[in-house]
Design a protein that fits this description.
seven-stranded parallel β-sheet, alpha/beta, binds NADP nicotinamide-adenine-dinucleotide phosphate, Rossmann fold, globular, 7 strands, 47% helix
Amino acid sequence: MKLLENKVALVTGASRGIGQAIAIKFAEHGASVAFTYLSSEEKAKALEEKLAGLGVKAKGYKCDAADYKATEQLAADVIKEFGTIDICVNNAGISRDNLLLRLTSEQWDDVMHANLKSVYNLTKQVIRPMMKSRSGSIINLSSIVGVKGNGGQSAYAASKAGIIGFTKSIAQEIGSRNIRCNAIAPGFIETDMTHFLQDSGAEKWFEKIPLGRIGKPEDVANAALFLASDMSTYISGQVLNVCGGMAT
Ligand code: NAP
């Protein structure tokens, strides 16, 4: 059964990793997919072709999610091309991990802009078309680190905790318009972002995961599919931990 037929989804940061898995999962379930990337031009082109091969309308847009004006233009372009936006996945993000004593002001600002301001930017753009159609699902990628904290990741954790506060507030603000807003908090997922962790002392991380394995991007994509679809029409303002049991 296809869960997203006749829906238009916008996924930020889909050239790699979790965003790419979400874009593919949504397309497999019949959604038209607009997605963004920052610099991975070739990977974006390849994804566009893969999604089209799944029989849906798909287009990649180069857009810095941290840039308000650029996201304003993006939303206008997507609506012109696709007609509306039913689902928005705020996935684009970066990590700049460092102990606080070494964490620079620039690193702090980079993380806050790419991870948190981006979520404000895109959510602000998509709620108008969603209000017009009196329905919508916004899904924000937080992190288990935003729920629990983690030494050496204060900026990243703060940005991801900020996403949770934002998600819960927006859910209250726009719930009456039948627009839902939820967050996903992944644990340790195998992507470019975590490669350096996997190389250095992965065993110490695995010990903390009750399910005994690192997560796959598809594990997160399945959760996103649930929150995007009508399977979750009475769920809003929640944080879904996809972490192999790490947060229990
Ligand atoms: P990733 O493999 O590093 O991919 C990041 C994606 O975001 C890329 O497509 C990148 O585009 C894009 N991006 C980065 N900054 C952007 C910006 N300013 N504007 C637009 N696109 C931007 O990361 P990932 O592991 O898939 O993570 C995806 C999300 O899940 C992030 O929000 C991350 O914090 C969160 N998360 C990941 C994990 C994990 O273990 N991997 C755990 C918890 C939460 P380019 O390819 O063009 O650079």
